[in-house]
Amino acid sequence: MACWIAALVVGAAPRRVWHRLDPPFPLLRTAFPAGILTLTIGFAIGVPAFFAFAEHAADADNAWMLRQLTTPATSYDPSVALVPYGMSVLTVFIFVLSTPAGLVTLYLVTSGTVRAVSAYLDADDARGDFVLSGLYWVVMTLFTTSREEARRLARTQREGPETPDRLVTGGAVGVDADYVVLASRRKAEWNPGAIILTRTDWYRLGVPFDLQTPAGLRTAYPLTKMETVEVVRRGIKYDLPRLTKTGK
Predict the structure, then answer these.
(1) Is the pTM value of this prediction over 0.90?
(2) Distance in angstroms (rounded) separating the CA atoms of residues 89 and 101
(3) Strand 166-169, strand 216-225: pairing
């Protein structure tokens, strides 16, 4: 029971982290009541805050009206009597859109309703709090980008200065391939199975791998000559470098 009750609050966590929390918290089963709880909290905050705001606004309107009624008749405009009435009609919108309590109420009621309806219609579509989910996405995106950039810089340092590609035989580096291209930088679109089109032959690209050499880290691209003609929808044109005798 304690975990079930706690899940009503924990369910606000981003959906992407639910698998780490369930179990012990039954987040999917409590997604609907968690949305209802958020909705209820929104009303609990908004209703008394609205009445306090409306009372203050009414007092201000009444005071303004009395001041207008006491002005000289020559400068009095009868249409001003309609101003407090118009303001009273707009009070709820002014409260919701221009006050901190109103904005919090609007968010909690809206997000709670969406979460409850989503969970009720499809349990797999249950979701956590929108703001927390957005913050989680931003933090994880920045973290992933920073980590990838750190890895890229570390690899660049290991690779050393960019140099022209080298070509060695497969036996020189201990792989079953006709040739291996050693590149100081990874090549875009050079994925396993790609067809490399040279001036004289076609080669099928094997699985690239990293190879440490005295000159630095190199990406090794195994090439196996194609002996049969195949239909190639898209190939990569490449001029093979001059063959060297060693892969070191």
Answers:
(1) no
(2) 19
(3) unpaired
